[in-house]
Structure formats: C-alpha cells, structure tokens
Amino acid sequence: MQEDSSEIFFAARTSDWDDVNQDLIFDETRVNVGNRFHDGHTFIANKSGLYFFSLSAGGTSFEQVILNIENIDQKTGNIRREGTTINGTDVIYRNTFAFLDQDQEVKVFSETPLASNPQDVLTSWGGFNVDYLFDDSVAFLVGRNDTFRPLGFPTKLNFTDVFIDLGDNFNLTAHRFQAPEPGIYYFSYSVGQLVPYDVRVGMWKEGPEWSSQSEVESGPQNNNAINMLSKSTMIDVAAGESVSLRAHRPFVQSDPDNFQIAFMGFKYSPSKARQVAWAVHALTSFSGSPGVGLDPVPFESIPVNIGDVYNTTTDVFNIPVSGYYFLEFNVGVFGLDRRKPCSAKIVKGGVPGDEGNFGEVLASVIQTVAPLSYHCVGRSLIAYLEAGDVVRIVADENTAIYIGLNKQTTFLGFLLLEA
What we know:
With about 425 residues, the protein is an all-beta fold. It has 1 helix and 34 strands.
C-alpha cells in the first residue's frame, strides 16, 4: 500500500498541560501517515473531503475541561465539562466528522489545564481521511442544539440538525439512521449532563424487537456543573434496519455552541486494507483489591469479530494483518455503595499475569478517585500493529469495572490501512 497517499495521524501529550486559552501542543507524534500533522499542533488536509477526528483529554481534580477543535464548521468535536465533584484524574473524549478543503488547517484550542503522562497519554488527538480510506461512503453526523426534555422515558432522542448525511440515510423526522445496505457499521454518540440530574442514553437497533447495543450513564452526584460523556460501538446491520438513541432519564443537556448531543456513524468498508474489525462488551463486573487486578479482562458479548481477532479462550486480541488500527475503549465506573477507582490499560505484547513481562501500555482509561455515582470514561487512539501482535485489556489492582445491563464497557478496533 502507498502510505503517502493516506492521511492518518495520532499525537499525544506525555506531560500535564498547564497553559490556558492556547493552542494545545502535543509533544509526541506517534502516527503521521502522509506527514500532514505539523509542529505538534496543526493538521493540514492534503485533499478535500470527509475527515474523522477523535480528541481525548485528561481531567484534573475539581477542574473544568474545555477544548475546541478549531477551524471546522461543526461544534460536535468540542469537549466541555464545566465542573466535577471528583477529586482525582480521569479522561473524557469525543469523536466527530468534518468536511475539509485542501490545505485547510485544523488545531485544538484548550481553555483549561489538562492531565497526561507518558504511559497513560490521557490527552491525545487523532484522525484520518474517510473518503480515501473507505469505499461506498455511507456516513452521517447529527446533533441537537438545545436540551432534550422528554415527557416520559425511555424516549427516542430527537435531533435538530443534520450536518453530514452521505447517502441520505438519516431520517430527521423519525430521528434514526437506516442502513442502505448490509454490513458492519461504526457508531459514536455524545450526551450532556445537567446538574442535579443523572443522564442515561442508549443506542438501540430498531425492529420487531428493539435491542440495546450500548449505553452511557452518569449519576447526579458526579458533577456540580455541565458535564458530557461519549460512547461508541460497532454492529452488524442488515439493509433496511434502523439505529437510534433513547433517553432513559428526564434531561439530556445540549446547547448551540457545543452540540453536546450528537450522533454519528459510517459503514466500515476499507478500500486500502482487508476487513479486520472487532467490537466486544464485558458482561461481568469486576472489583479488585490490593494486589488483585484482572489480566486480561474477559468480554462475553461479541457482536463483531471479523478476522477472528478476539480469542474467547484466552481473552486476548490476535492481530492478523500489519497496519494502522483505530482503537477505542469505554469503561463503566462503580459509584454509590460500591465506590472504587478505575484503571484499565490497552497492552501490546507481554504475558498475561506476568509482571516481569507485562508488555507495552499503549494507552489507559482511568478514574483515579471513585465517583459518588455510577459513571463512564473512555478514549481512543490510533496505533501501528504488526501481524502476530497480541493486544489485551488489563484492569489494575484495587480498581473496578462496572457492568450494567446494557454494555457500558466496550473495546473496539478496526484496520484503517495495511502497511
């Protein structure tokens, strides 16, 4: 494959960011296919077209987390948490699409300090050119410009704006995406949370019997101002089947400056690689103790496993094809009477359970101090993986992973480009 014809990047901060109201500087560029990421802060599009961006930010004790992706039309990539009651470090993230012109420059502007370190790389930014890397472009991005207040619940979440709809497959009247053809689809959604209310939103596949595909939730005691959460998954969708979001609580916050309520997706049909993709959900909660972690974390629900990546016997992911992979991990966090911090790592290589041969930590999802209520944290990354590499999820000692009824803890990945 001609790597220089593609545009894929992933950059990270390896230390805390202390400046405010500045363009965010990423001091380590881990992936830069096409050499379009420059000077630690600027992505410059090589071609006009549709681009995918994913932004992760490390939050600090009791502090705001406010970041904007600059110079794109949509505000659906902004991260905005105006306050938190959590005395510790965590990670918050968001995905979005954007149409870019050739040579258009895109940066991340941070209004607040951020946390990060060399191992967990909580603060990071990545993206890729959708048009070049995928065939049969089917993609959508919708949002809502004000707070959703359903009269009852669960209620289908309603949207006000369609930003992107390649193929005209999102029905704004019915508030649902309808697949034009069968295949594996990636979906991502974000929601805002008002004080003093909890928020719980799930993604459902519609049909004679609606089925829950994933869910994000956060309790009312976790924040003292506006907060937001994100979640993603991949599912197999038949032609004509529809996917939508449902609100399970009375308020879901959003505003016209940030579009905290947003829903996006695309068909996974790579043009520069064989199909390799997985999406798995944990169905059993874990609560560790001093000296007791979980290595590896098992996943019982396996909606997507193209290429037989996930081994259900060993609970590890065997990479079949060398190339650049997009990875994303969401974790449910315990609260209330079962409060416990969360720390889960994406690890490459090593031997499960062997501290002397642990492997390389690619990134982490953390909540260093237990929240007062149930919560969700997550993040994404892009990494080069070789055929034969083994990847696993590891939960650190004395931490916990919360599993509700509707798949809060998810790990997914897909091959972007063979190399």
